[in-house]
């Protein structure tokens, strides 16, 4: 019998995730499929689309989930190998609930499930995961009707055509594109999406391999961008694209091999959408650069600031009827894509902007990069609340204002510099982000705050 404590370690705020064979196995996944199907059946749903990434454990786990779903009388459409945003496309375009088997950027030993309802509406702790957890503890209610059916469907061509319809690239100037798929699902989707476009694609690590033989599929960590940075320069590429394991995030490298801040990408895409939808609302999380709300305002849009995390962003997108939303972590959300995130769609907007310009990417992006930032710095802290308060107490004389939307965001006196300290939802970590006008000021603030946190 599973205990709630065991399940709390696996069923998290936004998804199901754990080490295969220890935290997560076929029996747990089969029961999770049955529990989710039981909930959906009560809501009048009939079908679940299931996709999986290239991890060695993904086919068997997704099959077990499918068995759980059909045991409750719902039908399954197996999409087989898909990126996460391809699964969202299927859930949106087919109007079915969805389940994606992936552990995103985590190492090979992990796997998990991202769930959504019809229309790619996300399922989080408050919208289904807690109920699934209850069922797994108490037992999934039996269903005495006929089991559902399992069919297979390929949606990659439709996904690619849909994206190309949102961001036409046929008229772009020719571009050399270096792309690092990190042996993840970008190797599956990028060739299909770019087929027939005026791009010379130079692939790096496009072979699907869920053991990640070259580097982790986590481009948020600078060490995982190094190969692409070198490759861009060697190939004389106009741009470099780095995808994470399930290809729902995309990081950008300029022609000099320098990483482009995800906040700068947010600002560029926001500006493009405000030209298309004047006066529209754009969502950004509180860690993105101040450049983002500044540029939204300058382009006549309405900026709405939100907490970190895709479930908050997607809920806010729907509530505010926002056309676009961006996070510092390179998650980008689109109203035209059922408010779901797509690294590919963000990359296509950057390619469109570059293809329309005669500038190199480094010059094009300079307009969207007004400040220096630390990036996210993690510290292992036993008492996160006490450490956060210690920072506020020690710096009290230097603080102009504090808000508590997500952790504490501190605006410092007599400067444009600010920092945010927030606790991880899943680990004993405090996360620090700092932004200021100069790299020297950023480093001084980082040193001062970390000295307090790590004391």
TrEMBL record:
One of its GO terms (biological process) is carbohydrate metabolic process. Residues 11-133, 159-257, 263-371 form the Alpha-D-phosphohexomutase alpha/beta/alpha domain. CDD domains: PMM_PGM. Coiled coil: none annotated. It comes from the Bacteria. Its cofactor is Mg(2+). Keywords: Isomerase, Magnesium, Metal-binding, Phosphoprotein. Residues 376-450 form the Alpha-D-phosphohexomutase C-terminal domain. GO terms for molecular function: intramolecular phosphotransferase activity; metal ion binding. NCBIfam families: PRK09542.1. Belongs to the phosphohexose mutase family. This is Phosphomannomutase/phosphoglucomutase.
């Amino acid at each position: 019998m599973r205990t709630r404590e065991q399940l709390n370690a696996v069923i998290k705020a936004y998804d199901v995730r754990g080490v295969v064979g220890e935290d997560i196995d076929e029996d747990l996944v089969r029961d999770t499929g049955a529990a989710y199907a039981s909930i959906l059946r009560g809501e009048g749903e009939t079908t679940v689309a299931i996709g999986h990434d290239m991890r060695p454990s993904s086919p068997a786990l997704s099959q077990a989930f499918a068995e759980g779903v059909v045991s409750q009388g719902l039908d399954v459409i197996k999409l087989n190998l898909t990126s996460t945003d391809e699964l969202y496309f299927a859930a949106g375009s087919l109007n079915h609930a969805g389940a994606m088997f992936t552990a995103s950027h985590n190492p090979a030993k992990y796997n998990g499930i991202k769930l959504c309802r019809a229309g790619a509406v996300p399922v989080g702790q408050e919208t289904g995961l807690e109920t699934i957890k209850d069922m797994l503890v108490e037992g999934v209610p039996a269903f005495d009707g006929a089991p559902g059916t399992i069919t297979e469907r390929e949606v990659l061509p439709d996904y690619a055509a849909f994206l190309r319809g949102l961001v036409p690239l046929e008229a772009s100037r020719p571009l050399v594109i270096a792309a690092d798929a990190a042996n993840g699902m970008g190797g599956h989707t990028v060739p299909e999406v770019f087929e027939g476009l005026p791009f010379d694609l130079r692939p790096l690590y496009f072979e699907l391999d869920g053991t990640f033989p070259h580097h982790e599929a986590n481009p948020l960590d600078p060490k995982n961008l190094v190969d692409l940075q070198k490759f861009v320069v060697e190939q004389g590429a106009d741009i470099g694209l780095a995808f994470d394991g399930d290809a729902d995030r995309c990081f950008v490298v300029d022609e000099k091999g320098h990483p482009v801040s995800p906040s700068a990408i947010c600002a560029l895409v926001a500006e493009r959408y405000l030209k298309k939808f004047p006066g529209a609302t754009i969502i950004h999380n509180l860690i993105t650069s101040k450049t983002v709300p500044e540029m939204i305002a300058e382009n006549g849009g309405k900026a709405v600031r939100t907490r970190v995390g895709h479930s908050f962003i997607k809920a806010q997108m729907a509530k505010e009827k926002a056309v676009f939303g961006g996070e510092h972590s390179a998650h980008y959300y689109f109203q035209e894509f059922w408010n779901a995130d797509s690294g590919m769609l963000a990359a296509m907007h950057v390619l469109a902007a570059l293809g329309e310009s005669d500038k190199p990417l480094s010059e094009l992006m300079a307009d969207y990069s007004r400040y220096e930032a630390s990036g996210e710095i993690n510290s292992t802290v036993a008492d996160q609340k006490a450490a956060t308060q210690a920072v506020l107490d020690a710096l009290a004389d230097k603080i102009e204002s504090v808000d508590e939307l997500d952790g504490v965001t501190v605006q410092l006196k007599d400067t444009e510099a600010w920092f945010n300290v927030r606790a991880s939802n899943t680990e004993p970590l405090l996360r620090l982000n700092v932004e200021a006008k100069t790299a020297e000021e950023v480093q001084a603030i980082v040193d001062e705050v970390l000295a307090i946190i790590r004391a």
